[in-house]
Design goal:
The chain is mostly helical. Helix 4 (about 105-120) crosses helix 5. About 80% of the residues lie in helices and about 0% in strands.
Length: about 180
């Protein structure tokens, strides 16, 4: 009986060590991402000149929001992009159960766009407090925009339109209609 307990204990120890061995790269990556998005990113942006930091934050907003806003038009201004993005977010809010989560998106996008426009055209200077506020808004806005993008992707994957419906979807829909 003691030999069986020892073998069981050694086998469990081996399984745990193997699991930790294979999960350690993911844990290191997760810790690295958390550190980057909580400490390093803030440190990087606050070391830059305020106008440059705001411009980079806005570029990130543009990069993450562009797939939601749709095709880029020729000579599109920041305000035109903002309008398209807000319209799309409002449409997503109507279809989604995360309406409260996406509620502040409009104000945040407007604030970042106005701040970006101020860096380009205003005569007053942007200071570190503006950068800090923009960075805090961006951290929350980034996750909301990612959620909206995931919602759009999920809608495309799981709710095919009539034109793009596969033969299986068409057969299920026709059998459903005929049974009613």
């Amino acid at each position: 009986a003691p030999a069986d307990e020892t073998a069981t204990r050694l086998l469990n120890q081996f399984r745990l060590e193997t699991l930790l061995y294979w999960l350690s790269p993911f844990a290191i990556l997760l810790v690295g991402l958390v550190l980057y998005f909580t400490l390093v990113e803030r440190w990087i942006y606050l070391r830059l000149a305020p106008a440059i930091a705001v411009e980079r934050i806005y570029r990130r907003l543009y990069r993450v929001g562009r797939p939601l806003a749709g095709e880029r038009t020729r000579a599109e201004t920041a305000y035109e992009f903002m309008g398209k993005l807000i319209d799309k977010i409002n449409a997503i809010r109507e279809q989604s159960r995360y309406t409260n989560y996406l509620a502040r998106t409009r104000q945040d996008v407007e604030y970042l766009t106005d701040l970006y426009q101020d860096t380009l055209f205003a005569h007053h200077t942007i200071n570190k407090d503006d950068v800090s506020t923009a960075l805090n808004l961006w951290k929350h806005l980034r996750t909301r925009l990612m959620m909206a993008r995931l919602h759009v992707i999920a809608r495309k994957l799981f709710a095919p339109t009539k034109q793009s419906a596969s033969p299986i979807h068409k057969k299920i829909a026709s059998s459903f209609r005929s049974s009613q």
